[in-house]
Amino acid sequence: DIQMTQSPSAMSASVGDRVTITCRASQGISNYLAWFQQKPGKVPERLIYGASTLQSGVPSRFSGSGSGTEFTLTISSLQPEDFATYYCLQHNNYPWTFGQGTKVEIK
Amino acid sequence: QVQLQESGPGLVKPSETLSLTCTVSGGSISSYYWSWIRQPAGKGLEWIGRIYTSGTTNYNPSLKSRLTLSVDTSKNQFSLKLSSVTAADTAVYYCARDGAPSCRGGRCDWFMDVWGKGTTVTVSS
């Protein structure tokens, strides 16, 4: 299985901060990577797919980059509604595998 | 727009079979892949497996010996059966659209773009 390692696992940040979350794959996955946001008790929502394509309706402060084994999700200016847990997901090799999640909390 | 709804028993006894159905509305189930994902309380997401509308399946090896996915295109539904369940199978189970054969590369508009609301399944006697 491809291991997806997210860092950090948790972080505290303030409104307006620039936030970067990293996802590393244990082997190359090209651009077969998506990012999801999940708020407590809610369904995960896709933010980014194909490593860098922004989901329609998602604010432009979210962006994704990377290819191969290293990927980043960046929130350019953190907003109150962005406090949530973020997951990466690779779909290059079976089984699809998620990162362990990054919880973004209010500082 | 396409909507998904999971249904099935919320309580299953240990050693029995967990059965869930996902109903697709607002669009056709045909020509797409469909996945199941689960999430134990307070933990991360785990991909269970996926099925194409032809019936072709891909399973997570960690569950493969106990898992059966099926599809009923006439009802616009796909289903999951997980046998010999234990407390470790207690989780919220989600269904989601998982792409299409027409997708090329990782940039697939229909990959995990639509999810059901999830259904909680507890394994307990």
Biggest β-sheet of chain B: count, sense, barrel? 7 strands, mixed
Q: Structural class of the secondary structure composition of chain A? A: mainly beta
- Average of pLDDT of chain A: 97
Number of helices of chain B: 0
Quick check: average pLDDT of chain B? Answer: 97
Helix/strand class of chain B: mainly beta
Strand tally of chain A, please?
A: 11
Q: Give helix and strand order of chain A, one letter per element, not per position.
A: EEEEEEEEEEE
Distance between the termini of chain B: 39 Å
Largest protein-protein interface:
A-B, 29 and 27 residues
Commentary on this structure:
The complex is a heterodimer of chains A (107) and B (125). Chain A is an all-beta fold and 107 residues long. Chain A has no helices and 11 strands. Chain A has strands spanning 4-7, 10-13, 19-25, 33-38, 45-49, 53-54, 62-67, 70-75, 85-90, 97-98, 102-106. In chain A, the strands form 2 sheets. In chain A, strands 2, 4, 5, 6, 9, 10 and 11 form a 7-stranded mixed sheet that branches. A 4-stranded antiparallel sheet of chain A has the order 1-3-8-7, with no helix packed on it. Chain A is globular. Chain B is mostly beta strands and 125 residues long. Chain B is built from no helices and 11 strands. The radius of gyration of chain B is 14 Å and the shape is globular. The interface between A and B is medium-sized, with 29 and 27 residues.
